[in-house]
UniProtKB/TrEMBL annotation:
Presence of the UniProt keyword Protein biosynthesis in the record: yes
Protein's name in the database: Probable phenylalanine--tRNA ligase, mitochondrial
UniProt keyword ATP-binding, yes or no: yes
Domain Phenylalanyl-tRNA synthetase as annotated: residue spans: 32-118
Length: 136
């Protein structure tokens, strides 16, 4: 299962000084989120097409089924987390065909940099890790 492979990879590749994983894994967060979580906190423009009732499954004016797992990032960061992966089903009003379905799985990984970290060096390290994961 790909999800378990990703979890195992993060737990083995990203460990702290004591040998414990530095990434937290979240895979059972409720798929019902607020408009604020799904769009506003991610700076999606108020008039962006992705907010449309034709694109999303709204429960009511304030809540919808998440269109992406990124909807949980702001909340987890506010909780003080700086390294985490979120897994979950996401819901979009796609026409069903050979490459589209209205429900699919998604994973987001977040690593917040501190002021001492060089963005380019971190990006290159992430690229190397991604390449290593893909070739395993």
């Amino acid at each position: 299962m790909l999800k378990q492979r990703i979890i195992n990879f993060f737990y083995s590749e990203f460990v702290g000084k004591k040998g414990t994983p530095i990434f937290s894994i979240y895979d059972s967060i409720s798929p019902v989120v607020t408009v604020e979580e799904n769009f506003d906190s991610l700076l999606v423009a108020k008039d962006h097409v992705s907010r449309s009732k034709n694109d999303c499954y709204y429960v009511n004016r304030e809540y919808l089924l998440r269109a992406h797992t990124t909807a949980h990032q702001s909340e987890l960061i506010r909780m003080g987390l700086d390294n985490f992966v979120v897994f979950g089903d996401v819901y979009r009003r796609d026409q069903i065909d050979s490459t589209h379905f209205p429900v699919f799985h998604q994973a987001d990984g977040v690593h917040l940099l501190n002021r001492d970290q060089d963005v380019i060096v971190v990006f290159l390290a992430i690229y190397d890790i991604y390449e290593q994961f893909i070739t395993e």
